Amino acid sequence: MLTSIREQRSRQVGWREWLAQRLPEALLPHVTGVVERQGELVIFTTSASWGVRIRYAMAELEPPPAIDRIHVRVMPGRGPG
Predict the structure, then answer these.
(1) What is the pLDDT along the chain (81 residues), one digit of tens a residue?
(2) How far apart are CA 3 and CA 6, in angstroms?
(3) Closest C-alpha among 31, 3, 38 to residue 15
(4) Is position 79 within any domain?
């Protein structure tokens, strides 16, 4: 179980790095998490308004291999700063 948690954490860090290379810098502090689930990438944001901005930015990007859909959801938590 500990190995699967480490693997999941590693994938989340990898996806966050992938986003950091593609999203405008001003949007990154508003990403609270990134999870891959069965061919879908779910990006969590601090609020609905930031989610809309991130959703528009993601629409302009080429989706990564093995990802069929990208969803943006709100999950407040650690905000900017």
Answers:
(1) 667 888 888 888 999 999 999 999 999 999 999 999 889 999 999 999 999 999 999 999 988 888 999 999 999 765 444
(2) 5
(3) 31
(4) no
Position 81 in a domain: no
35-55 tens-digit pLDDT: 998 899 999 999 999 999 999
Is residue 31 domain-resident? yes
Model confidence, pTM: 0.84
With respect to residue 80, please indicate whether it lies within any of the assigned structural domains: no
Q: For the chain, where are the E strands, in sequence order?
A: 31-37, 40-45, 69-74
Range of the domain at 18: 2-74
Coil vs helix vs strand at 5: helix
